[in-house]
Structure formats: structure tokens, C-alpha cells
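Before relying on records like the one below, remember that each one covers exactly one chain. Contacts with other chains, cofactors or solvent are not represented anywhere in the record.
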Amino acid sequence: MAALPLQMTWASPEEYQATFTSEISRGGLLVKGASLVGAQAGAEVALSLSVTGGGSAEVSARVAAVVPGVGVAVMFSGGVPPALASLGELPPMLEAEVVQEEEEEDGPPGPLSERLKKMTVNEKMQLALTGTRDERMALFRDTNKSLHIFVLKNPRIGLDEIQGAAKSPMVSPDALKMIAEHREWGSNPTVAASLVRNPKTPMPLAMRLLDKVPMSDLKQIAKGGARDQLVHAARKKLAG
């Protein structure tokens, strides 16, 4: 199957450098406004990237997530492509001026919590798709629960993070549903037990997950370790 084409252009080398630091250097990129109808995670894409005044490059990547209304998140295999490391480079004198201006205007970066306070919703969505473990954990605690879905679409998220999210009452019901319906996560006994105990998991979903809960957890639930309806259902399963 031919690689799917994607294009992205930056208005200046400075804009590209900012994107490189926040996304590309971490192994991914959110192609804002792009749409790949029917594309599945893992599909190969051919990226055509250009920087006004800074050249262009064509590299391969794979789809991490397609987010309607936001764009397509892609990940690079084997680290940052060499062509992107040099794309958008500034002349030495100009680069020094830009660095000096950034230091004067922005100062040293603050703690993660302070950075998040200054970010827009779209910037947080972008961070959720490409951010680090600490950034993902912080976004799971964000009061804007619509961000939780985007965190789950981050291809770097680990099973231990999923287990933590499954038991957290701070995670949105939509995100808990996404975890339960995921082929790998939803079949994990520990995740299933955490979702059943989580008071924010939609009840019909929690009832279905009882079949995946280990016997030891089922016995604990039957003793009162969940909502009444689930406790009764667990007792019935043990009695039957």
C-alpha cells in the first residue's frame, strides 16, 4: 500500500525551531488541520515539510492518531530523521540573535504546572498527543477532561499509566470507555478490575467488565468494593 501524503509548512525558521523543540525532537509531529479519512494507527505516511526561508524535506513517518478537527499526529521510527535536524537552520548570527531575544523575553522555563497554565486548549491537545510521561500525568489531572482522550492517543503511553488512569476518578468517563474498549488494555485483568471499581466508569460498561475481573478481585468486589449494583452482580457470579 502506497504511503499516504501529508504536507506542512512553517512561515519562518523560528516557527520551525519551536516545533522541533516541542514535538519533533521527541519523535513526533502534529500536522495541524490535516485529515486522512479512514487512516489507521500505524499507517505509513510520506511527509513533505517546508520552511519559508529554510528549505524543505521529505521523510517517512507513521500515523499515531487522527484527531478530527485538530489534525494528524505522526511518529518517526528510529529517532528524528537527519533531514529534519537541519531543516530550518538559521544563519549563525541570526540564530544567536533569536536565542538572545528568547532569553530576554521568556527567561528560564518554569515548572510544568506553570507552563500548562499559560497554554491554550489546542496547545494542550498537541502536548497530550506528543508529550512526555510527566506531561501526560499532568494532563490527566487537568480540569479540562476533554484532554484525557488525547492523552490516551499518545503512542508512548505505557500500560502502567493506563492502569493508573483506569482507577482514577479524575479521568473522564469517555476516556475510561476508551480504555475498556481498547483491544489490549480492556483485556488486561488489572485494568478491568480497576475500571469496575472506578465510580466514574459507566455502569453498563462496568457490568460487562466483570467477566474479565480475576477471581481474587471479584471476591473483594462482592464484599462491597464497588457500587451496589456491581457488588450484587459479583455475588451472583460467585454463587452461580
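The CA atoms of residues 47 and 110 lie 33 Å apart.
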